[in-house]
Amino acid sequence: MQKLIIALLISSLFGCIGTDIVDDTVPPRVAIKNPIDSLKVGESYLFEAKYYDESGQEVPATIEWKSTNEEIVSISTGGLALALMPGETEIIASFQDASNAILLVSGENTSVVVNARSATLSTVSSYPLDGTVSLEQEEGGSLFLRFSDDFNTTSALPGLYVYLSNNVTTKANAYEVGAVTQFTGAQEYSLPPSVHITDYDYVLFYCKPFNVPVGNGQFMP
What we know:
This protein is mostly beta strands.
């Protein structure tokens, strides 16, 4: 009996650690944190952006801003855009070789585009993990990470935790949401005001005791 228990423990351990990832670098990127898709003529809007290095960590950077059509929408070096006449332009935020662009319509109203982002989960281990999760911003400003009814994994996982990150290959520098409280079905996790809906591009699931990945998903848009 004792040998059987030891064998099961070893099997569980190697089932988890067999998926460890060595290369944890990602391309540096710039992210526009408060995108909009339209700006009313005569109004201004202050864009914000952040720069993430090869580890997916936010680092200080002086972002350069550009409008591809300054006659439609002008933008200052600090990211303050002013809609001058009806039309379309691209707003580009860049730092070194990384950039991020959005299409902006100058017209009759101003509209904010991002209040929900969703991710389809897939496993990267021998354990099942699938379903849909979403980041949802409510009218009062509260942000939640919500798992849909189709979320499914296994309670056999030792210490399953969920993280938000900008690097799909590692939870280093990731935001720890917490331990997964149930292994199937809908559930939600409240996030603090310091976390913005566009701060992170990936949701990660890890065996925390062994520091190895179980599955992940990329938030869209």
